[in-house]
Write a structure and sequence with these properties.
The complex is a heteropentamer, with one copy of chain A, two copies of chain B and two copies of chain C. Chain A is an alpha/beta fold. In chain A, 33% of the residues lie in helices and 23% in strands. Chain B is mostly helical. Classes of the chains: A alpha/beta, B mainly alpha, C alpha+beta. Chains in contact: A-B, A-D, B-C, B-D, C-E, D-E. Bound molecules: adenosine-5'-triphosphate (ATP) (2 copies) and magnesium ion (2 copies). One magnesium ion binds next to helix 1 of chain C.
């Protein structure tokens, strides 16, 4: 278990006034792993009658599972398009933005410090890792680079942020573009460098209660918890920006 | 002359592990070992991989036998199709299973409508995903063993009145026990390390479908050193299981 | 002997095509009868046994055992091996390497539905009969060749089959055990109500064990009959050598016979047409110079082979016709017989058996 | 009696594929097939998987032979260590390779410093990653085959003057050809479908390191139907290769 | 014959421990000499050959070939099989199943460094010598048992080894080929400068091919000598049966010998101490009632076995002592000999050979 239980909200019951109970299954993007584990523990402490299950994975995989009939109550996606596929399939309605993330330049913590601006990504002698354009972070990186007018010279186009981060942490790569939250999760091995243009490509995290949920009151309570000050604090701690 | 490539091969397989061990966060290990989540994931992994291996043995050995011994039109096609799941990227394999057995799948919709059974996101789904990915290994290894076995022992058993099934059980299988053992080890190991198909088809619910490789994947997100430490724990456990299992099988059958 | 339909015997007309080799053999074996299949290497003996065992389907012909059709490609019948109640001893044993001797023998009993303990008991019994009681728990890899052969024998006999097929069952046995096992086998076969087909290279085995011989060469039957008949009037080189006779085929004109392959022999009585001529090697006298005695047949040749057999030496002469002669060791010394030496052979016309080809 | 489980096993392996085929975007296929990216990825996949299989054969067969035939202290440990990469989650395997051969790796730092060689992010790295993941399959399958082979043929060859190497090459390997063939198929298929270790160690750059499974994975994010279609193309190609290869080997050696 | 150090022969003292079986045999074979190893099944003959071939290391003792130490556990010497220049024919052939007959034969030539074409040519030559030229391109699975054996023979001979080991090289050959191959083998062995150790169950093979016999029983040498010596004075039951004699061991007192296992026999000359008594089955006369003639030895027994051998019938009598008798077919009919019939055996004292044990 992670995170100490915070101050308990008195609202240990649902909208109807009945204490919440039953199972609650939350599908969440893998980049939310740490934060959602803490949120789950907080929520469970506040609603002892509810058993919260987290199903973590790539947003796209989660979306696919939900569309195939997976028993999800809440879906938290790392980017709007995946949420859109679920909404389009009428499996969820009214998604809400609950967090934002922005890109940072990431370099090895013990690196020689040759990289400080986005423009350095164009230097051919450096080993540069970016996310592939097909995945959300890659699409964001591409937008960032084009808005900054930089033609990067990547050596590899990774399938997700984690893959970029691992290579930077091991020092195999001189620089990459990842989300701020990932830089924080990466611990001491990597160093994040803020990129001014990143404001323009902020990535929204969306959450929605699914249409097929068997426990709508608990689901709504979880979403409310996510958007509550306590929930937002946890997210901010992990490096997310708030909507 | 043979020792040189053999040594190179060994080094090739072992040095990366060594590098892993050298760089592993040894400080993190003790706390990991006692944490209940790790225990849960490991136990689930072992249970699922063992069940998947058993399922593969039950279904795969007869299939290998049919491929090696029976002569029917289209055998080449059948063999080719059996080989296919091997090259399928595991994630796509998981998608295929969803398309088949999901609530809206080709078969799954009837299971759901008629019996109220929903397979995905259960421990059963993990076993199915692992078996789907691992069974071709067993089938191909066993078919290879069957083909190199001397068929005349089977003839001798047949003249003694043994039916095909009896011959298979009492003569053929014991004779190719090392081959089956090898196949089962491959199958078990593949199942134990399986990730893509499982997470696609069964999701990742702690205690239900979150096997160790999935836990490693998630830890890689939140705490990379812990992920490596967890992999080492998985390795240690599986080596223990494999060594104890395999040496028994191999020696029992060696002549 | 022709079997009536429904008779308890074996009635088979075996036709098989293998690459470069065709077998076409008719076999009839009555219940309790032992038939010996003889023939040179590659004649098709093992192939015939495989067909009877159900390990090789016939290309044509048919096989009926105790009134039950086992194989008939025209009628589309093929009874697979396990349902045939046929026991077989293979030429190279084929003991199951992962089972002990006793479990090898018990295998057939268990496969035919015997209980484990009972099967083992019976198996031990059979091992005792082939003198291997103390090797019951040994694996085949640790058995000597002869021991393995005896286990194979016990394994086949133990299932009490309707038809027993023995492919050289005694070949690997040593001289002392061989006689014992041969008598035991004879006893088992005598007591045994089913049919037996035996392949052997040892004429003695065939003579002692078999009621009737079928000689196969190149996939076809060239001669059959009781051992005595075959021994008395061999019809092929192979059979003649088997029973130790000189044999020639030729065209007769009066008392003179032109031998195929060269030479002329004189018989005691006038004959006509195609005939076989046979005489024992012991009927041949050898001389250093042309003999002048009463022997009507005299011809010259070179010594091509010498072989000691107990007191006598068998001499092979390269001559027209070729001939084998048995002489004493003393004679070899007296005539100074060495390979390549030139000598005269003499055979009295009265020693030559003559019968139509 | 055997046909029932064999049929079940076959259905188990083939029905998910069928579901995939049924749901595949057939309209998308023709344009995919002619697209140069798909061609590039497929070609790279085949080249790398073939090279990896050859590398595995060269190093793995001698290793299997040593494990099956030589008797040395610690053989059990060696065998256990050879089995280990099987259970390693592939991503961790890739990390292990980076730790060994990367710029700062145990060995890689010297390669870099002394020879200026950098392995990651090259096609060579793809081959190494695939071989690392696939070799245990070959080694275990071949060891199983070696153990079920009749060693006395080797004795006979030895009395005829053949050295160990000659015996292996001219007697043992031909006798266990079906087993090697099975092992090579497993190895090739595993290499062809390999994803995690490759992307971790070699990265993914079109034409250099982006193999088909990586392309499939990426497509699954952006255009799922195209991903399924691409998998089917990968399947089709690999089945063609495997069928033509394997049937030849298997029949050539069958007695 | 003791070989001097550095002699071109084989000098071996083979000691091997296998579970439940120990071999302890000394063998000395001169260059060009052929030694036949005889013995019952499981005596250790194949084990001895394996040691000589380098397939089984000795537990103790040593083996030296042409002055070169091949195996000496004390000195830590062990020359592996491929470096020994030893050719071996295995009891169950062990032809390589994936190679054609000619490639099987060529294998040794190529392994010893011959070129591919040259090796094949020589191999075809050897196949011709064993009469298999037309099956050169056939795989072993399509060979009959006898054909396979001949290919194995050719394969071993083709490498022209220093020491040739033959484990029953003629066992699977049919009667007609056998004589031919035997003479050919004799010729090859005569021309062959190396040592030969031959295992056979056929006394005739051993007598014809070997210069000296070594009889092994239970892992130990029980008798050795020239074929004639062994035939004349067998020292064990096995040897006696091998050469077709009745043999007894007993304690002599004057002309009377108490036979081990029961019974008394009278000899022509007085002897003392432990002796062997031997006589041929043909020296035994059988009578329905107690004979009154000159034969000094007369005893009664029951017929335990009957076996036809050509013109004569070998009768086994269960008596004290047990005895084998050869009688004519006519005698069998006249005496009405059936299994279990009670008859008298008579042997003249002068027919009995007596020699110290
Ligand atoms: N599996 C096979 N495929 C093709 N031809 C075969 C096969 N087995 C045997 N033959 C051929 O068939 C012929 C008969 O072989 P078979 O084994 O029946 O002879 P055999 O009479 O038993 O000889 P032997 O006394 O040497 O054992 C031979 O010429 C042999 O080469
Ligand atoms: N691999 C083995 N392990 C243990 N014991 C064995 C092994 N091989 C043979 N033996 C035993 O050693 C003894 C001698 O066997 P060997 O094969 O040398 O006999 P043999 O004289 O060749 O007999 P045969 O004439 O029947 O071939 C037998 O008692 C046998 O059971
Ligand atoms: Mg045969
Ligand atoms: Mg032997």
């Amino acid at each position: 278990g992670t995170g100490a239980p915070g101050p308990l909200t008195p609202a240990a019951e649902g909208a109807s006034g009945q204490p919440l109970s039953g199972r609650l299954t939350v599908f969440a993007a893998a980049s939310l792993t740490g934060s959602f584990e803490r949120l789950r523990d907080d929520f469970a402490a506040a609603h002892p009658g509810v058993q919260v299950q987290l199903n973590l994975g790539a947003s796209s995989a989660l979306a696919r599972q939900i569309v195939s009939g997976a028993p999800a109550d809440v879906f938290a996606a790392a980017n709007p398009p995946t949420m859109a596929t679920v909404v389009d399939a009428r499996e969820a309605t009214a998604p809400q933005v609950f967090a934002r993330n922005r890109l940072q330049l990431v370099v090895p913590a013990d690196g020689p410090g040759r990289v400080d601006t986005l423009a350095d990504l164009a230097r051919p002698e450096l080993v540069v890792a970016l996310c592939a354009v097909a995945v959300p972070c890659g699409e964001a990186s591409a937008r960032l680079l084009s808005s900054a007018g930089v033609t990067a010279a990547p050596d590899t186009l990774e399938q997700d942020v984690k893959a970029v981060l691992t290579k930077v942490a091991l020092g195999e790569v001189d620089a990459g573009l990842v989300y701020r939250t990932d830089v924080l999760a990466g611990g001491g091995a990597v160093r994040g460098i803020d990129v001014p243009q990143a404001d323009q490509v902020v990535n929204d995290y969306l959450v929605a209660v699914t249409s097929s949920t068997g426990n709508p009151s608990a689901a709504r309570a979880f979403v409310a918890h996510l958007l509550s000050p306590r929930g937002q604090a946890v997210l901010r701690e992990a490096g997310f920006e708030l909507p | 002359m043979l020792l040189l490539p053999a040594g190179l091969g060994f080094a090739f397989l072992v040095l990366p592990l060594l590098a892993l061990v050298v760089r592993a966060p040894w400080r993190a290990l003790p706390s990991l070992l006692v944490s209940p989540e790790v225990g849960t994931a490991l136990r689930l992994s072992l249970v699922c991989a063992t069940s998947a291996t058993l399922l593969c043995l039950v279904l795969g050995v007869p299939l290998a036998w049919v491929l090696a011994r029976a002569d029917f039109p289209g055998r080449r096609l059948v063999r080719a199709l059996v080989t296919v799941p091997l090259v399928l990227p595991p994630v796509v394999g998981g998608v295929a299973l969803l398309l088949l057995l999901g609530r809206r799948g080709l078969v799954g919709r009837y299971l759901d409508a008629w019996f109220g059974i929903s397979i995905p996101f259960t421990t059963g789904a993990v076993i199915i995903a692992e078996a789907f990915v691992a069974m071709p290994f067993l089938v191909i290894a066993v078919e290879g063993a069957l083909r190199s076995a001397d068929r005349r022992y089977e003839d001798a058993a047949a003249t003694l009145g043994a039916s095909r099934g009896t011959v298979l059980r009492t003569i053929t299988l014991p004779l190719i026990a090392p081959g089956i053992s090898a196949g089962a080890v491959l199958c078990f190991a593949r199942a134990l390390g399986e990730f893509g198909a499982t997470i696609s088809f069964a999701g990742s619910f702690p205690g239900v479908t979150q096997t160790t490789p999935i836990a490693v994947y998630l830890a890689l997100e939140s705490d990379p050193p812990a992920a490596i430490a967890l992999s080492l724990v998985l390795l240690g456990v599986s080596v223990l299981v494999l060594v104890s299992l395999r040496d028994r099988w191999m020696t029992g059958a060696s002549r | 002997m022709t079997l009536e339909p429904g008779s308890p015997g074996l009635d088979a007309e075996l036709v098989v095509d293998r690459e470069g080799f065709t077998l076409e053999v008719s076999l009839e074996v009555g219940a309790g009868e032992v038939l010996a299949l003889l023939g040179p290497n590659g004649a098709g003996k093992s192939t015939a046994l495989q067909c009877l065992a159900g390990l090789l389907p016939l290309s044509a012909g048919s096989a009926t055992l105790a009134g039950r059709c086992l194989d008939d490609p025209v009628a589309g019948v093929f009874v697979p091996a396990p349902e045939r109640r046929v026991g077989m001893v293979f030429q190279d044993y084929l003991l199951f390497p992962h089972l002990s001797a006793v479990d090898n023998v018990a295998f057939g009993l268990r496969a035919r539905g015997g209980g484990r303990r009972r099967a083992r008991e019976q198996a031990r019994d059979w091992l005792g009969r082939v003198d291997l009681a103390d090797l019951a728990d040994v694996r085949p890899a640790a058995l000597s060749g002869g021991q393995a052969q005896r286990v194979a024998l016990a394994r086949a006999l133990a299932t009490r089959p309707r038809l027993l097929l023995l492919d050289e069952p005694l070949a690997a046995l040593d001289a002392s055990t061989r006689m014992q096992v041969r008598s035991d086998l004879r006893r088992h076969l005598d007591a045994y109500a089913g049919c037996t087909v035996l392949v052997s290279h040892d004429p003695l085995d065939a003579m002692v064990l078999a009621d009737r011989l079928v000689v196969v060469e190149g996939g076809r039957v060239v001669q059959q009959g009781t051992p005595a008949d075959v021994a008395r009037a061999p019809r092929t080189d192979y059979t003649a050598r088997l029973v130790g006779l000189n044999l020639y085929r030729g065209r007769a004109q009066g008392q003179s016979v032109d031998v195929e392959g060269g030479g002329t022999l004189t018989t005691a009585a006038p004959v006509v047409g195609e005939v076989f001529l046979a005489f024992a090697p012991s009927a041949v006298a050898l001389h250093r110079d042309e003999p002048t005695g009463s022997a009507r047949n005299r011809w010259r040749g070179r010594v091509a082979g010498l072989e000691q057999r107990g007191d006598t030496v068998r001499v092979e002469l390269d001559a027209s016709p070729r001939v084998l002669a048995d002489v004493t060791v003393a004679a070899v010394a007296a005539l100074d017989l060495t390979l390549g030496a030139s000598v005269w052979a003499a055979v009295k016309a009265t020693e030559i058996a003559c019968y139509p080809a």
